[in-house]
């Protein structure tokens, strides 16, 4: 899901049982704008939420000029602090 249409897409997939809380939606939207700016990404896509045993993870992927070579995947547990997947 692209950053621009994220709020509508999240509500759309909510009918299939994948639901984010209001706090998570708000934090995710504002945080992805900051991630795009700080990491100098041309675009940011939200991949989804992984439900873990101990905690949940949010996955996003940022792309730069060359979308195949300059692709970085990041994860977060709180939709605020992001780290690279290795």
Automatic annotation (TrEMBL):
PANTHER family associated with the record: MITOCHONDRIAL RIBOSOMAL PROTEIN S18, RADIAL SPOKE HEAD PROTEIN 9 HOMOLOG
Entry's localization field: Cell projection, Kinocilium; Cytoplasm, Cytoskeleton, Flagellum axoneme
Example of a GO biological process term: motile cilium assembly
Protein name as annotated: Radial spoke head protein 9 homolog
TM annotation in the entry: none
UniProt main location, coarse: other
Similarity comment: Belongs to the flagellar radial spoke RSP9 family.
Pfam families associated with the record: Radial_spoke
InterPro entries referenced in this protein's UniProt entry, alphabetically: Radial_spoke, RSP9
GO cellular component, one term: radial spoke
Record keywords: Cell projection, Cilium, Cilium biogenesis/degradation, Cytoplasm, Cytoskeleton, Flagellum
